[in-house]
Amino acid sequence: MTRRKAELRLRTALATFSLVLFASGGLATEPDRPVESGPIGPYSLADVTIEYTEGGPYGGTTTTIRGDGTGTRGSQLGFGREERYTFSVEPKRVFELLDLCYRKRFFELRDHGYGPPNQLRLRPDGTIDVMATIIADGGWRTIKVTIGSYSKAASYGDPGDDAPAVLRELARRFRELPIPIPTAPK
Q: Which SS3 state, helix, strand or coil, does residue 40 take?
């Protein structure tokens, strides 16, 4: 057998092995371990902070609730104006939102924002363009959960059709929190 034929057989064998390895998903060393959906306890509810930010090009509002029952709301009203106040929230509400995060796998979401999917365009010369949809004056929402030193955030833009259901549900529940709005002094 000539050297050239031997090299060809070796390349064919390596290509076949690579194809089988690729198709099977890799070498089977151990079974896949389940992904943990959030930090493992025990920890105190007082260590939990959940933050919801809703904004747009002209300002936004951040609402923060803590497991100890305290909350803050800060609003950027545009043109450098801010509004900030504190309120109380039932710790049970914080626990319910945290429970939703675990049950609906919030902690497994991607770390960046969700929005309309990118679209591909094939050019006549064979190159591919990746085009993204950007809404210049659109709004966005971010949910951030902090437990001790652990933190996870995920966000999505308007209209939110491509956002995971857990993000939309958390945003809805935050908007429905009974937060007293302070009245201006007379």
A: coil
Give SS3 for 182: coil
In words, the CATH class of domain 34-175 is alpha beta
Q: Where are the domains of the chain?
A: 34-175
Residue 145 vs residues 86, 95, 153: alpha-carbon distances, Å: 19, 12, 6
* CA distance linking residue 111 with residue 106, whole number of Å: 10
Q: What is the dihedral of CA 5, 11, 12, 15, to 10 degrees?
A: 180
CA distance 33 to 42: 21
pLDDT tens digits, one per residue of 124-157: 998 988 876 666 677 888 999 999 999 999 988 8
Task: Please name the amino acid found at residue 98.
Answer: L
Joined tokens for residue 110: 């991607």
The model's pTM: 0.70
Which is it for strands 150-157 and 59-66: parallel, antiparallel or unpaired? unpaired
Question: Which residues make Cβ contacts (< 8 Å) with residue 177, sequence separation at least 6?
Answer: 63, 65, 89, 93
For 52-87, what is each residue's pLDDT tens digit? Answer: 999 877 788 999 999 999 999 998 876 777 888 899
DSSP 163: S
